[in-house]
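WARN retry 2 of 3 for item q-0093 after timeout on previous attempt; input resubmitted unchanged.
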Amino acid sequence: MQLFRRSTRVSAAFDDSNLVSAAGLVPAMALAAKTCLGELADQWLTLPGYLGANAGLMVSALVAGMIAGADSIDDMALLRHGGMKKLFAGAYAPSTLGSFLRAFTFGHVRQLDARWLVNVAAVAPIASGIDDYALVDIDDTIKEVHGYRKQGSGYGYSGVRGLNALIGILSTATAAPVIIGARLRKGSSGSPRGAGKFIGDILATVKRLRGKDATGPVLLRADSAFYGHSVVAAAHRAGAKVSITARMDPAVKRAIATIYEKDWTTIQYTDAVRDETTGAWISSAEVAETAFTAFVGRKRADHIHGRLVVRRIPELNAKAGEGQQTLFDTHRFHPSFTTSDLDTVTADKTHRQHAIIEQVNADLKDSALAHLPSGKFTANAAWLVLATIAFNLSRAIGTLAGADLGKARGGSIRRKLITVPARIATSGRKITLHLPAQWPWETSWSQLFEAACGPPRIAAI
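OK item q-0093 returned
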């Protein structure tokens, strides 16, 4: 692509007070208003003085900026351009929003957390299928920071200086993941720190999202860093099953040794090929299971009975090409402890799908969590919770816009539905948004607008 005529002179001027660069914020913030985001913030946040009196508007403004692509406090200035004040109330200066975040304490962060998602699920199908089968995943991720003035930053298991974010997500067979909990921790924190309490909180959120007559199971998945009694016990107290990668400790090794050779079943794995005649998978990976009681080193009341589902993969012989063959086959074993009723092959396949949470972590870091913008720990903790709210609102926006965007990344939703330029035209009490002709996603945007707004109205940021 190039300019239509190279000889044509082009000039530019920032002088249009009726132009906005993110018209998608209109249905987005109308949806936030419909789900009472600002009202809940006003109700639950007890910040002092002016900041507390306007908590709902400030929370909505921060979420709006994040949806539009802001990943730092200074970026919130994108809410104050062109005709934005004709569309929204509460477009605060970045300095005011920064003061609002720095006023948070740990209690305020908890007040803000996990009180809004149920309202969203009532107007957008972000948790469809949850009554039949709910998959809950937890994992932690390190957000790298630079400098020594970030409270709580440190070196953890990754060897990177940063802060540790513990994330919980919910997904179903028909719905893409939504975030049901987030906690910011010191960078030096181990993965399982506080995980038991965190699991209790997020499973309580799942219970609120499910109908009263829901009978389908809830399965908690996690990697080996969370293989501990506090995590499994918290899940059981909440009525959930678990599927957690087990560490190769002596008890697990003894259990694997009891599996007979005839019990191993070939599974679909990397580079597997299906035999067209028999329908069987031709693969080097196999799976088997054995009964297993976890945490036998604790008192008898703490023992948890389940199964050990083990996947084995042959060890590659690096010198096979030199004619030095092995005398017998050796394998790498990947065990997981589960209390679910799934058959062996399904249990292994379901457990491997735990990696879906890595996509959520990447999506967060590609949007609002690209930075932790404050030097104060509680301000960054509030920023993380607001980033998860923005993520879930983006997911709701995608589902309302149509099936094609229901499972899209946050960046795709932002590019196609949010950062759409528009010119404002006012006639009497009516505001009309004039959007670009032949916008490729016009149908999806119109569907979202109709679902979120109905007749056009002012949406409070």
